[in-house]
Amino acid sequence: MQTQDALDRIARGVRKFQTEIYPAQREMFERLRHGQEPVALFVTCADSRVNPNLVTQTDPGEIFIERNPGNVIPPYVEFVGGVTAGIEYAMLALKVPVIVVCGHSDCGVMKALLHPEQVEGMPGVQKWMSHAFEARRRMQQKFGDATEEEQLRHMTECNVLGQIENLKTHPSVGARLQKGEIEIRGWVYDIGDGSIREADPVSGKFELLGRKR
User: Fold this and answer.
1) How far apart are CA 184 and CA 98, in angstroms?
2) pLDDT reported for residue 80
3) DSSP-derived secondary structure letter, 98
C-alpha cells in the first residue's frame, strides 16, 4: 500500500470513530476520562493480526496491553525498559489480578528463531530475539526431529512458558504472587481458526481454552 493510501485509510477510520462509534458509546468514554480499572495485564505480540480486545471481547479500559515483537518479557536483571515499566505499573498502580502472556500462530519472531537469516540487517530485532533463545533451545532439545510446522508450534509454546518464567523475575510480580494476589496464564492464539490454547499452570501442557474444565 502506498503512503497516501495508508494515510487516507487511517483518516477514514478516525472520521468513522468520531461520527459513529464515539457518539454511540459516549457515556463509556466520558467515564474513562476519570481513570481505568483493567481486569488484566495482557502481554502479546505487536503483530497487526492480533487484537486483544477483539479476542477477549473487552471494552476500552478493561485490559492493560503490553505489546512487542514476539511477546517477549526480558528478565528483570537483564533489561529495564518499556516492558518492565508496563509490568510494574500494572502490578503496583493498577493492581490487576490477572496476567496473560499470549503468543500466536505464524509469529514472525518465532519463524526467525528457526531461520535467523530472515532478520539479517535488523540488529535491533536480532538483539530482542536473544530473550527467546532459551525457547529455541528447549524446542530443539525436545522436538528437533519434528516437521518445521510442528517445530514452530512448539517454539511458540516454549516461548510463552519461557516468558512467564522471565515475568516472575520482576519484583512487582513476585511480591504479588507470594501474597496470592495474581494469577498468570499462558495462551497461544490461532489466527486462522480463532482458537486459544492455554497452558496448564502445573504441567505446562497446552489445551484448548474452554474445553479442559
Assistant:
1) 6
2) 66
3) E
- Residue 64 CB-density burial (10 A; 0-12 exposed, 13-18 middle, 19+ buried): buried
Model confidence at 99: pLDDT above 60: yes
Give me the DSSP letters along 137-202.
HHHHHHHTTS-HHHHHHHHHHHHHHHHHHHHTTSHHHHHHHHTT--EEEEEEE-TTT--EEEE-TT
pLDDT at residue 173 is higher than 80? yes
- Give residue for cell 495462551: 187
Res 213 pLDDT > 50: no
Tell me how far apart the alpha carbons of residues 99 and 121 are, in angstroms, rounded to a whole number: 34
d(CA 57, CA 137): 35
Cell digits for 167? 515475568
Q: How far apart are CA 98 and CA 65, in angstroms?
A: 12
Nearest C-alpha neighbor of 139 from the set 148, 124, 151: 151
| Mean pLDDT value of segment 119-129 | 96
d(CA 157, CA 193): 17
Average pLDDT over residues 7-22: 96
Burial string for 144-156 (b: 16+ CB within 10 Å, else e) reads eeeeeeebbbbbb
pLDDT at residue 38, as a whole number: 98
9 vs 68: CA distance, rounded Å: 24
Angle between helices 148-167 and 133-143 (to 10 degrees): 130
